[in-house]
Predict the 3D structure of the following.
Amino acid sequence: MTEPIKEPKVEDIKTAAEEKACPVQKALYFVTEFLSGPMCGRCFPCAMGSYEARIRLQNLVEGKGVDADIRALKRIATDMIEASFCKKGKDTGKFILDWMATDVYQEHAEGSCPDMQCASLIEYRIIPEKCTICGDCKDVCKDLAIFGEKKQPYKSGYFPFEIRQKRCTRCGECIKVCPVEAIVLVAANAKKPVGV
């Protein structure tokens, strides 16, 4: 006899969501898990609101968000708090609204993640003045996103390594191996790394 599958409780989902650093990712995780588990779908504001909220949050995380997404999220979350039949729907609306008072949603709509967690809104860049052309970053890059030639003794004319952003998957392995900390994480819309 098989045991019935236990659906996650809202409290468990909230605990797991809180482990994420970016508030928008927290909200997206919470709503996604709520939809796949504890949401019963009996009331319209909760059922439709949760699906629409997930789309809007996904837009923000993927760098496609606009001001209309933020306005819609505020309306959806407020409607869920006021009109959901059960506490689960009201808690979901409250979880979305918790970070609305800060500018974090707006910053995502403008193309930056202040916590540097949303892959679509960040880039890894090499600071040319710091790069020693050792090639450690290129060796570790599984995506073949780092271009350049390793420095060889008694030869000159080498250019610093460069990260091709379209190939980079933001795994972070290059930062871990750089011996001179020449690779930095920046907002994708930044002109050049801070402090350079």
User: Anything to note?
Assistant: The radius of gyration is 22 Å. The longest strand covers residues 122-126. The chain has a mean pLDDT of 87.
